[in-house]
C-alpha cells in the first residue's frame, strides 16, 4: 500500500482500480478484507489503516436465470445494477442459449457507460453469437453511430465477419448506413475476402450511388473483380452512363478492356447506350475501340443508333474505319443504309483523311454494294449528295452489274447519280417499264447528265490537287518532326552524360559517408565501453549505499525496541500501583488487560517489522557477504602474488652472493696458476678458462630460471 498514491487510497473502489493496474485482475474479482470483514466499494479507507487483505475470486458457475439477468440487465440502463451483478463474480462473457452476451445487449441498446463497465470487467468485445455476429457488426447494421465510435475507440475488430462472410462495413452498406460506413472506412475497415464487397460495388455502380462507390473503393475493393455472375463494376457503370463513377473506377485502376461474363466491354455498352462522355473517358483510359463483340464493333453500334457524339469520340480515338460487321458492311455503308446524315459526314471526312477516296468506294461482302449504292437503294438523297461531293465513284457495279444510278427512285437522285455511261441494265429495265425512269426521260436529260459528269470530273481533279498539296505539307511536317527528334536525341544524350556525372559524384559522396559512418561506429563502441565501466562503478557505489541504509534501519529498529521495552516497564509499574490500590482493583485489572493487549499488538507489529527488517538485512547481508567474499578472494590472490614475488626476490638474493664468491675464487686460482706455471701458460690457462666458462654458463642458466 505504500507504493499506491494517496488518491488511490480514498475508497475501496479506487484501491481496487490501483490494484488492477498492478496485478491485472479486474476489480470485480477482488475482495478487500480487514479483520476478516469484506469492505464494500463505497467504503472510505482510513488513513491510519496499515494493512488489508486482498483476495482474488474466481468466476462462479452461474445458472441460466443468472446469465439472463446479467445479459439483459443493460436493457434498463442502470450502471449500478450491472455493477452489483458483476460483484457476484459473474463471468462478463457468459452467453445465453443463442450466444448473446451482456456487451452485445448494451451495444445494441446504445449504453456506452454500461459497455465501458463491462469492458473494465474484461468482457470480450469481439465475441460473436451463434451466427458469428459481433457487437460491432450488429450496431453497424442497426445504425448506432455513437456506439460504433465507442467500439472503434475501444479497438474492436473491424473486419471480423459472421457466418455469411459479412463484415461490419458490408452490413452497414447493406442497410444503407452511409455515415457508419464512412466511420468504418476511416478506421481502416474492409469488406473481407468473400464476394460481398464485389457484389456491393456492382449493385452501387448500377444504381449510380457515387458516395458508396467511393467508400468501397477507399476500402480497397478490387474494381476489376467480378461478381458470382461474372459482372464487373466498370461495365455496368458504363452501360448505365454514370460518368463520375466511371471516372472514379478508372482512377482506381479499373481495366478498361475487361470483358464481363456476357462478352461485353465497357466501351461497347457505353457506345451502344449512346453515352458519349463515358466513351470519351474510356478511350482516354486506353480502351480498345476496335474490339469486336458478337460480330460488330462499338463504331458500328453507334452508327446504327445515330449517336453523333459517340462516333466523333471514336473517330478521335483513331478507330478502324474499314472493319466490317457480321453482315460484311463497313460503318460508312451502315450509316448510308440508315440515312444518318451527320454520322455519314463524320465518317466520310475521316475516310478521306485517313484512307483516301478509295475508302469511299469499299464494297460490302453481301451484294458488293458501295456506300453510294446503299444511299441510292434506300433513296437518301442528302447522303448520296455528301458522298458524290466527297468524290465517291458512280461507276462501280455491284454483283448484279448495277451502278448506283440504276437504283434511283426519283429524278433528283437520277440527276445526281447520272454517270458518263448508261448501262445495258438501265436500258433493259427502262424498256421493260420496270424502272421509275424510262428511256425517254433519260434521253431528254442526257445533256444535263453530261454537264453533271464534267462537273464531277472537275471536282475530282480539285480534290486530287488538294490531296497533292496536303501530301506535300505532311512531308514538310515529317521532315520537321525528324529534325525535332534528332534535337531531342542530342538533348537526351547530354542529359544522360550529366546523369552519369551526377551518379559518379553521388558514389563518391556515398563512399565518404560510409567512411564517416564507420568512424562514428568506432566512436560509439568506445563510448559504450566507457559507459559500461561507469555503470559498474555506479552499481558498486549503490551496493555500498544499500549496506549503509540497512545498518541505519537496524539501529532504528533497535531504538524502537528499546522504546517499546520502556513502555512495557511503565505499564508494569502502573499495574503494580493499581494492584496496591484495593479500592480500584477491578478497574486496574481491566486497564492492565488492555495495556497487555496493546502491548501484544505492538509486540506483534514490532516483531513483524523486525522480521521484515531481518529478512531485508539478511538479503542485503548475503549480498554484502558475496561482495566481501569476492573482495577477500581478490585480497588472497593479491597476497599470494606478493608472497610469490617476495620468495623470488629472496631466492635471488640468496643465490647471488655465493655465485659472486665462486667467481672471485676462480679468478684467484687463475692468477696463482699463471704465476706458478709461467712456462706452460697456454695449457695452464686453458683449464681455468674452461672452468670459468662452465661456471658462467651455470650462473647464466640459474639466472634465467623462472624462480630467479
TrEMBL record:
Keyword Thylakoid on entry: no
InterPro entries in the record: Ankyrin_rpt (IPR002110), Ankyrin_rpt-contain_sf (IPR036770), Ubiquitin-like_dom (IPR000626)
ANK repeats: 98-130, 131-163, 229-261, 262-294, 327-353, 367-399
Regions crossing the membrane: none
Sorted UniProt keywords: ANK repeat, Coiled coil, Repeat
Residue span, Ubiquitin-like domain: 11-45
Coiled coil feature spans: 468-644
SUPFAM superfamilies per record: Ankyrin repeat
Keyword Coiled coil: yes
PANTHER family the UniProt entry points to: ANKYRIN REPEAT AND PROTEIN KINASE DOMAIN-CONTAINING PROTEIN (PTHR24198), ANKYRIN REPEAT-CONTAINING PROTEIN-RELATED (PTHR24198:SF165)
Name this polypeptide is given: ANK2 protein
Organism of origin: Symbiodinium necroappetens
Taxonomic lineage of the native organism: Eukaryota, Sar, Alveolata, Dinophyceae, Suessiales
